[in-house]
Amino acid sequence: MKYPVCRFDLESDILCPNCQEKLDRGEITGFDVEFSKWLIARDKEYPALSDVQIKRSIRLPNRLILILKKKQKDVFLTAEPLVSEITETFGKLMIFEGTPKLRNVVRMLIAPAVEVGVNSLYLPDGFKESIVMLRLEDRDKIPYSKEELREIVSAVISETVIFQYQDERLEKEKETPPDQFDEKMTELSERRFSDN
């Protein structure tokens, strides 16, 4: 297997300057290093996986996400004993391929439902936050809660993603009390016109 960290680094337990830079820039994480060490101790048992490239590994509560090079998921899943050991050790295994894009990841997770729309906000600090709108009638078709979707998708694409059902947004807008300033301005403008 090919790892996000140099094989020599994993075997020597010291990161080379290149891998250390990747770690410092956030391109890889401490868990990438830890999981790669865990895998390297087992990869000789799975010669069929020699060409599989692990781009990233992400640990969430009771879940492990692997991002592999394109068209390698099926090959990885043929190593059933390894997949079972990963699941027992790290939790439910989820695999994505290539460079994960927001809409593709969302569609994969919510199928057969389809998102209504995606709005992106660019925050003053340079971060981007996306809101994915879903139809309320699709709630039973989606195997994950909004919180699980937020956690998984945010981790996979490395940005904050919030999920909302359309009808919930409308309800929230109805529940929001009217703005006092707007009410006062309306009252003043109505009074002005009635005085004339």
Task: Outline the fold blueprint.
Layout (H helix, E strand, L loop, with lengths): L6 H6 L4 H9 L4 H11 L13 E7 L2 E6 L4 H5 L2 H11 L1 E6 L4 H9 L6 E6 L5 E7 L11 H12 L2 E6 H10 L4 H16 L1
Parallel strand pairs: 2-3, 5-6
Antiparallel strand pairs: 1-2, 4-5
Helix pairs in contact: 6-7
Number of strands: 6
Question: Shape, please?
Answer: globular
Q: End-to-end span in angstroms?
A: 82 Å
Number of helices: 9
What is the helix fraction of residues, given as a range? 40-55%
Mean pLDDT over the residues: 87
Secondary-structure content class: alpha/beta
Q: Main β-sheet, in a few words?
A: 3 strands, mixed
- The number of distinct structural domains comes to 2
Q: Tell me the radius of gyration.
A: 24 Å
H/E element order: HHHEEHHEHEEHEHH
Q: What's the arrangement of strands in the largest beta sheet?
A: 1-2-3
Low-confidence stretches: none
Would you give an account of this structure?
There is one protein chain. A three-stranded mixed sheet has the order 1-2-3, with helices on both faces. By secondary structure, it is an alpha/beta fold. It has helices spanning 7-12, 17-25, 30-40, 73-77, 80-90, 102-110, 146-157, 166-175, 180-195, and strands at residues 54-60, 63-68, 92-97, 117-122, 128-134, 160-165. Strand 4 (117-122) and strand 5 form a beta hairpin.
Put the structure in a nutshell.
By secondary structure, the chain is an alpha/beta fold.
Which structural traits does this protein have?
2 domains; GMP Synthetase, Chain A, domain 3; globular; 6 strands
